[in-house]
Amino acid sequence: MRFARGGRNTTAPFAARSAPVQDDPSENPYMAAVGLKPGIFTPDECLWLSHVPLPAAAAEIYDSHGPDARIDRELRRTRERLLPRNHEFRWVFHRLGVLAREANDHGYRFQLDERMTAHLLEYEPDGFFDWHMDLGRGPTASRKLTTVTFLTPPDEYEGGELLFMDGGEPMRPEQGTTAIFPSYLLHKVNPVTRGNRFTLVAWLHGPCFS
Length: 210
Description:
The protein has helices spanning 43-50, 90-108; strands at residues 2-5, 8-9, 34-37, 57-58, 76-77, 79-82, 116-123, 128-132, 143-150, 158-159, 162-164, 178-182, 187-189, 192-194, 197-205. It is α+β, with helices and mostly antiparallel strands.
């Protein structure tokens, strides 16, 4: 897996986006690391996942307005399908789980449990998701690691870049590439201006951060 430091690709096996703090041996230099792993899913698998027939609805958010999820089209315009963790999709959860746990063992070192959830997201033209964290209220409170798999070839849509608040180049990787990062990192998806952008987003859970 390739990780980014300050928006630049690095050949180090695991590097933080900002320079590690060397003075404190207890400091984890990977707390803001964002990794990219190409080829996690084949083009055929990406196409199948993009159009798998599951119930779709406008994506909701959890925020400070209350304990329940709500739709806010000023913050997020996305359609989502919940990916059930059943026999049909077991291979998807297994593949992403292995990737995320290897990255966690190598650098993040978060306390994880066996829970894992996933959504298929579709960004139509004018679809976007403004600055947010994946860690929040309700069922999102236990999220530790986020994976985002890009299911659409980058030449089939415009806009829709994945950005992080702490800097780095906007992400529009090749089809089948998976990004992984701590769920508390602020990030956003730019508005899609042409085509449809499909992603598979999954979260590994654990005891709430303290």
